[in-house]
Design a protein that fits this description.
By secondary structure, this protein is of the alpha/beta class. Helices cover 43% and strands 19% of the residues.
Length: 124
């Protein structure tokens, strides 16, 4: 079975390293610090799942980029798990109404991240 490929998009290098460390034993993990870099990866590689930070200072927000992903025919079917430091009902609602498959609160518990990712792949 081929390894699934996950694209993590986060402006924080620490968060990206954490995601990679937690998931790299089971999945191929690509990383992007901006949505522009993420778009480049999406054009070049097959991505099975996107982990997307909501707050992207100096870039478009994760919610806005989610809308871009879900509007484009080539990326609309890629499941997206939002990563957020905000656990408010409004933030989570915006993410799920925008098309996110799930969300993970940061700082994340590695077990929770694994469970959410596996849940997405088992339901495909």
């Amino acid at each position: 079975m081929d390894r699934k490929t996950i694209l993590a998009i986060d402006d924080s290098a620490i968060s990206l390293r954490s995601v990679k460390t937690v998931l790299e034993d089971l999945y191929s993990v690509r990383m992007a610090k901006t949505t522009a870099l993420a778009s480049g990866v999406l054009r070049k590689e097959h991505i099975d799942l996107i982990l997307l930070d909501i707050e992207m200072p100096g870039d478009i927000s994760g919610i806005d980029y989610l809308k871009v992903l879900k509007a484009a025919p080539e990326t609309r079917d890629i499941p997206v798990i939002m990563l957020t430091g905000h656990s408010s009902f409004e933030t989570i609602s915006n993410a799920t109404w925008g098309g996110a498959a799930d969300y993970v609160i940061k700082p994340f518990d590695p077990v929770v991240l694994h469970e959410k990712v596996l849940g997405i792949f088992l339901n495909q």
